[in-house]
Amino acid sequence: MTGVLTCAEHLEWIAAALERADLTAVQRATATARVARARERMADAELHVAVLGETSSGKSTLLNAFLKQRLLPSSARVTTRTTLTIRYGPTAQVTDGAAVSAASGGHGALKGTLDRLLTGDAADEVRDLTLSWPSALLGEGVTITDTPGFSVDDAGHRARAVAAAERADLVLVVVPAVAAMSSALADFLAGPLHDHHDRCAFVLTKIDLVDEAERADVLDATVRRLRELGIADPMVFPCVPESVLRTVADPDAGQTFSQVEADLVMLTNERRQSAIAATLSGLLAELLQAVEQAALRRGERLAEAEREIARLVVPDLRAFLENWSQEAISAGRRAINVALEAASRPRFAADLETRLRTAVNRDSVTTGAKMAKVAVETMRTRLRAEAERILSTAGADANAVLRTSATDLADEFADQFRRLARLAGDERVPEIPAAIGATRVPVPDLDGADDTLTAVGSRLSSSAALRTSGGAAIGAAAGSVLFPFPLVGTALGALVGGMLGAPGVTAMRTRFVAEASPVLADARSAVAALVRAAVDRLFVDYTGRVDGVCRRYLRDWSGEIEDLAAREAAARAVLAEEIACAAATAKDARERREQINRLRAAMSRRPVRIGAGETAS
After folding, report:
1. pLDDT level of residue 447 (50, 70, 90 thresholds)
2. What confidence score (pLDDT) does residue 554 get?
3. N or C: which end of the chain has fewer CB within 10 A?
């Protein structure tokens, strides 16, 4: 902002700034009303004087002196919150604005009407009265507003006094010389009237009731106390309004009342622009507060949006899915490994040997052929059943983990999608299709198990450990005929042949178990290798299902996520721009308020010739 602007230019800037400002409904309504009042004030050619004073301060006497008639009742008798506006009119008339009624006539009729409306039974229903009166002071263009005494214990009285002061070009504060500067008056000046000191003038009434030798001291004390309250150059007019009503002049009591009237009219004209500037300053203060609050709110929203977007991963959908994929694969690997560990537990090997020993030691097993047969059945049944159980458990656990992971992904995606949508100004809730859930991982079979067992059996049957005699070859041939399962038939047949001719069933069983244990161990190792290979295939299939879920999300949601992320970034950019604009508006408002306050200060520097400045010096 450059140069010195007029009050009208400031007001139009304020009105435009209020339109742009982020205000609450109450703030906007209040500010709009004040702008409208300011426009009315600037367009109003009348000069407005507000008269304030404590009860029994001589306020009613002062007003009656302006009117040159005893029309208004004593303030001690007024107990309402009525505001009386006195303006020039060619004929005497009282209008009750609330009831839209009027009374006119001679002095007695008007005085009776005012008494009734201000002190009678109807007083509590009256809020605003207008008195039109052809007075020498109240020439065309001058209006006086009288308010209830502000020292009474009634917040409504004080509120109406403050409202009148805010609208006035000049605030005329009545101070009785016999009780100058009471604590109630000091509190009122330091509080509600603090921002209107530059438009305050003080009428020191009842000065004739003070001893002539003490009048100068009373005036000096009054001026000194006003300065202590922050009024650097107070304008004090000592006078005797009662003298006008008695048609008796007391020149030693202070200025003549006619001179006071003339000075007040002059002062009102001088303070008009200051009053308008005060209104604008108040509007700017409200605007500044509203703009700063709005900027603070927006700053908090921007900071929260930035914190929230930092907590979200879904805007980078690939990274979001990669994080999930790694966690899902790790969880699946852990579940599969737990199942696989069962294949290498020592207790399983011990259990297999125990089962073999139990089967061979049955009473019905008394020959080598029977021992070989039960050994084959035990090894085949137990090894395959255990291998299938391990694979089945690994597959079930992998599917459970994948199902849970896919559900968690859907929940987390939906939550982050909603949060991102809110940041982008979109309140949609995504519906995740069930098809995005993972498909079941099939359990691999044990293809090649029989061939592996056969190869192990052939290797073992030809080993030196089993070929203990020529009977081994015969036994191996016989075993492969008797037992169709190749590995077990060949290996155990060789064991039977090696034991031909051995004395005693018990010794035969002991030797058979001792010779068969290494065969069983090799068979178990071979099957374990097959299981590990099958588990590896299962894990590869599992990771493929995880990748499939990720591909589905990328296919179905990439476009929407990118759109929301772009809109969210744009929303944050708008917030940042609004904050910058609010900061610029606040800066401009401060500069304007400083300029207006300088204007008010310049306006308040009155010429020494006015009023009691001479008397007080």
Report:
1. low
2. 93
3. C
Question: How long is the chain?
Answer: 617
Tell me whether residue 609 is exposed, middle or buried, using C-beta atoms within 10 angstroms of its C-beta: 0 to 12, 13 to 18, 19 or more: exposed
Residues 6+ apart with CB under 8 A from 306: 572
DSSP-assigned beta bridge partners for residue 52: 173
**Residues pairing with 514 in the sheet:** none
Residue with tokens 């039109």: 132
CB-count exposure of residue 307 (10 Å: 0-12, 13-18, 19+): exposed
Structure tokens at 252: 């030693």
Terminal C-alpha separation, the chain? 41
H/E stretch holding 110 reads helix 107-119
Strands, sheet with 170-176, edge to edge from the N-terminal-most edge strand = 101-104, 93-96, 128-133, 83-88, 142-146, 47-53, 170-176, 200-205, 236-238
> Residues 101, 153: contact at Cβ < 8 Å?
no
* pLDDT at position 603 over 80: no
Closest to 160 (Cα-Cα) out of 170, 151, 148: 148
Q: Is 173 left (phi over 0), alpha (psi -120 to 50) or beta?
A: beta
Distance CA 335, CA 396 (A): 9
* The two three-digit tokens of residue 440, written as one number: 């079941």
What pTM was estimated for this model as a whole?
Answer: 0.54
Percent of the chain with pLDDT over 90: 9
Secondary structure in 3-state letters for 461-529: HCCCCCCCCCHHHHHHHHHHHHCCCHHHHHHHHHHHHHCCCCCCHHHHHHHHHHHHHHHHHHHHHHHHH
Phi then psi for 95, rounded to 5 degrees? -120, 130
pLDDT digits 0-9 by tens, 449-508: 666 555 544 443 443 333 333 334 334 433 443 334 444 445 445 554 555 444 578 888
Average pLDDT, the chain: 75
What is the number of alpha carbons within 13 Å of residue 524 lying toward its C-beta? 22
- pLDDT band (50, 70, 90) for residue 84: confident
Q: In whole angstroms, what is the distance from residue 438 CA to residue 337 CA? A: 20
SS3 call for 202: strand
**Residue 331 binned pLDDT confidence (cut-offs 50, 70, 90):** very high
Strand 93-96 to strand 128-133: parallel, antiparallel, or no bridges (unpaired)?
antiparallel
Kindly report the number of other CB atoms within 10 A of residue 299's CB atom.
Answer: 16
Say if residue 601's pLDDT is above 90: no
Neighbours of 108 (CB within 10 A): 8
Amino acid type, 577:
E
Residues 470-479 have pLDDT tens digits of: 334 334 433 4
Q: Are 603 and 39 in contact (CB under 8 A)?
A: no
Residue recorded with tokens 């009027």: 102
Answer whether 99's CB lies under 8 Å from 128's CB.
no
Predicted local confidence at residue 391, as pLDDT = 83
